[in-house]
Structures
1.
Amino acid sequence: WLQAQIQPPFPYNTINSIAALGTLDIAKMQTLLEEFSNYLRTSFDFHNPDRMVSIDRELALVRSYLYIEKERYDDRLDVQWSLDPNLHFLLPPLSIQPLVENAVNHGVLRRNSGGTIYIGITKNEACYEICIRDNGVGMNEEKLLSILDRSSDSNKGIALKNTDRRLKKLYGKGLRIQSVLGQGTTITFQIPK
């Protein structure tokens, strides 16, 4: 399930971008290749799919992913970060990155002008709250209600469903999704201290 969250078009498109840069800008190509290597190494390091990873490791994966997508889409993708200082906690692997990837592909890149992804992590007395927000196309009420429906036979939304399921199993609470058609989507979840 975790490996199914990694969408095949992303590696193929990244390899094509690396190849194209090979004839245009060797330094950029090398940097992109390094980030892609970081992304793959972190993504496929699953000796035990139930293990936890540090927030630093998960954010390294997110940063590599976003670096690659920013290289591909340039000014169509803006990224804003708001991270409380001194974050040190564990969370399930691939719990933030697939949500960011979803926001990029199904949110901001569906708009001709692109948009902004916001990634925030705040800590309070009881938990760490992770927020991924985009100003993309958003969803209507029907789509919003069906997105985490496990009874659906569709393979669409596997990353969201899987992340929600794992969070509920571990912490009793899953993803909270709010969306407004034409304005964007916000997904939050909490990791107890």
Note: The first helix runs from residue 9 to 24.
2.
Amino acid sequence: MELKVHAKTDVGKKREINEDSFGMVQEKNLYFVCDGMGGHAAGDLASRTAVETIREHIHSCEHDEYMILHTGIEEQLPEKAVYLVESIRLANRRLFNLAVEHPALRGMGTTIASILLDGRSAYIAHVGDSRVYRLRGNDLQQMTQDHSWVNELLEDREITEEEARDFKQKNVITRALGTRPSVKVDLRIEEVVEGDYFLLCSDGLTGAVPDERIKEIILSVQENLEEAASKLIHAANQAGGPDNITVLLVKVVKPDDT
């Protein structure tokens, strides 16, 4: 599989510390973005610990029974999907244990948006409100659903789209890594075609820049992912930069035939 990849993170205009992190295991075609919470060092620690844990787990012996967190459903999923989901669960367990051992860290956590590309399949796993998008041709599609209070209210039709834009508790998330001993990881499996773009991002981008503008920026630069990432972050900062901003772009130049 031939891919082009570029990632960039920025503290934004309002925050003093960047609590976002991103990670790559390029030999496995695995990419992920984490947005920490808990304030100052705790949020930064949470996102970095999640990135490091997932990277270490993927690099480790994939059949080490100690590393597998069995739930009984794994046999129904492709092997690569199992490794991805279980690495996220392991990060959750490690973060939760850290907070138990160190009371000052209680309340810390992190979102995660991740993608693992294998053959002609994309395994997309996430927790929280960091997102994965796919741009195919001129169609930008959000591939994840936010685990957030405002999104739940929208789904239950308790508020309108217009009310959601001005919702004061927009950043309140309902699911994160590290806040509980176990976590539900949403998994989506999609077919990959040549020319697909995948965007992984924290809500510092999506909370400031409309989807239509995100699409325009990516389409305007096409092959230059570094320029696209810079322009996306610039657009978020122009809109006030209220949060840390992380973008990770993957272009599928040529998928595997197998």
Note: The radius of gyration is 18 Å.
3.
Amino acid sequence: DGWAETFRDKIVLIGATAESLHDTYATPFSSASLTPGVEIVAATVAMVLNDRFMQSAPPWFATAVILSCLLLALLSVRIINARKTLWSSLALASVYVALWYGLFVAWQTQIPLVTPMLAILLIIGLPAIDNLLSRQARFRRIHARLNPLLSTARELDSLTGKLIPALGENFHFSNVELLVRSPKGDQFIPTA
């Protein structure tokens, strides 16, 4: 009779918990240590009784994030340094993950994670990586073409006859001028 009074007007959940029963689960809040299934059910019941449900952000939120990434991608095209663009895309992705986690924990609000993250990394990060790799490949290609010219030329006339056309060809310059420092070192003398 005493037990009946103890549990009156209460919800009682009874469950066997042991790892051998496979009734323990990883959750977003306990990925390192597994949570018993009965505790997950109890948390769900408490959420329903306290009227604290998970809610989704409005559909326009993901669209706004993707459009913001497109705008940032257009702006990042103007940034000459591809490394800065790449690091800024990784920083933006980190900020978005922190926002996603904060909204989930603090206000039980779920916002899309995968689509905006892919938008950030594919729209901003991938072109930055491509730009960085193509610049490095172009530098290596030009270095491979010009290095033999510089190392085999023994005199200035031989160097200018080979170097100036190679510079114009590799860099697509309309004009190339070679300046040599005067013996005193106080001025540059045009040689070709």
Note: The chain has six helices and six strands.
4.
Amino acid sequence: VTGVQTCALPIYTVTFYSFKGGVGRTTALIHVAWILAQRGRKVVAVDLDLEAPGLSTAFSLQPEPPIFGLVDYFYERAYMPEHKIQIGEIFGEVNVPNATGRLFIVPSGELNLNYIAKIDDLRATSLTTEGETLWSVFVKDIKRHLNPDFILVDSRTGLNQWGAFSLLQAADESVIFLFPNDQIGRAHV
């Protein structure tokens, strides 16, 4: 039909967050990602638990595993005007048997001294040289490259800049995991 513009649907982002570790946050994200891929959706799972990453170790990725990750990608966009790491270099695909959809994992990066130095320098509030947020640039790039239906974010636990970033800036919706203990009664959220 002429004169009718088509518009792409927005990517829906869900953050999986917990105040404490060990409550099943990452496991739940893995199951949801797997089910969505089996149901024909294109899913990108992002490891934003930068100080204790582990999402990518739950899967066998192709390529196996990417040399670069989200930290490298964010760091270059925040501090280096010439970007050498491209979006296609920071994710791997998971083979989900009998799935009509696809599942991609964006690891945080390779754990080494360089990674630790980047984490120490990088701030969730950092902007690119063009004044954009790191997350908005990432979403634009991932949409151009993969055009997923969902981005599922494995958040950092606790009260910190990356946990807040994943809840307040990255998420359209959040799944919050709690364990019934005394800490919940003391936290007034």
Note: Residues 1-7 have pLDDT under 50 and may be disordered.
